[in-house]
Structure to design on (271 residues):
């Protein structure tokens, strides 16, 4: 995969000072752009288990152990219509996606995986600025609840290996630790995000040819380029996830629509 930057796409950086106005914009266009591609950046994992073959309930308990004690760093959102068009600024060809920068994580005090922080720092995340200018997750949750992004049967979510991503969002929206068990977690996700949730990592298992690996590797195999931003920044990764999903849908899900495989997160396949 290569970077072919499209200068007509802007990543709208969201901080505390413009949080309200950006949610006002999202609220005004969500009905026209109901496909939401999402990615997050968080401080890695601090709890690990060595054995490889785990049940979905075991995966969930490990996820819960980490999400309960860690804080979200970034959220990227790409909104699109059913034809793949991004929202645009009227009177121009400039299109846009979003990157929310959170203030909750303090690299000097909070638990984190040092290698993950170093990776994010190398990709340009300024942890000090996030602490000073970033979005407070309590205010974010209040605005997200009334934005049309959640509790809305008309929207669809597109993600890549997103159990942790949804875990962090659920933690922020409920202001509490994640549910004790996997069934309760999945039920809570349905309440907030609905049934039209697509995890590209899960969809890959139903493709006729061998797709494997992380987002960048899959994009390379599908000859999908990154057209805005850098890898391991949430806004850019949310857009790449959307483009990978579209390419997979057009190549592998012509006869069998991807809706058949919605509502399942990779690693938490509790049928």
């Amino acid at each position: 995969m290569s970077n072919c930057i499209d200068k007509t796409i802007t990543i709208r950086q969201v901080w505390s000072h413009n949080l309200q106005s950006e949610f006002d914009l999202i609220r005004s266009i969500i009905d026209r752009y109901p496909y939401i591609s999402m990615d997050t950046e968080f401080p890695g994992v601090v709890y690990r288990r060595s054995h490889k073959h785990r049940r979905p309930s075991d995966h969930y308990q490990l996820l819960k152990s980490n999400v309960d004690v860690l804080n979200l760093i970034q959220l990227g959102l790409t909104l699109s219509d059913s034809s793949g068009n991004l929202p645009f600024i009227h009177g121009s060809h400039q299109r846009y996606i979003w990157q929310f920068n959170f203030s909750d994580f303090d690299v000097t005090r909070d638990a984190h995986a040092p290698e993950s922080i170093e990776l994010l720092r190398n990709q340009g995340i300024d942890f000090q600025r996030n602490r000073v200018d970033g979005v407070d997750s309590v205010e974010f949750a209040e605005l997200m609840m009334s934005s049309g992004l959640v509790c809305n049967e008309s929207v669809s979510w597109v993600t890549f290996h997103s159990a942790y991503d949804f875990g962090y969002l659920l933690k922020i929206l409920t202001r509490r630790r994640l549910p004790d068990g996997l069934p309760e977690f999945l039920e809570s996700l349905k309440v907030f995000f609905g049934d039209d949730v697509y995890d590209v990592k899960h969809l890959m298992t139903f493709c006729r040819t061998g797709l494997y690996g992380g987002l960048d590797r899959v994009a390379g195999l599908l000859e999908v380029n990154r057209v805005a931003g850098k890898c391991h920044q949430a806004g850019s990764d949310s857009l790449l996830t959307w483009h990978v999903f579209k390419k997979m849908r057009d190549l592998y899900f012509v006869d069998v629509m991807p809706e058949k495989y919605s509502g399942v997160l990779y690693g938490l396949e509790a049928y």
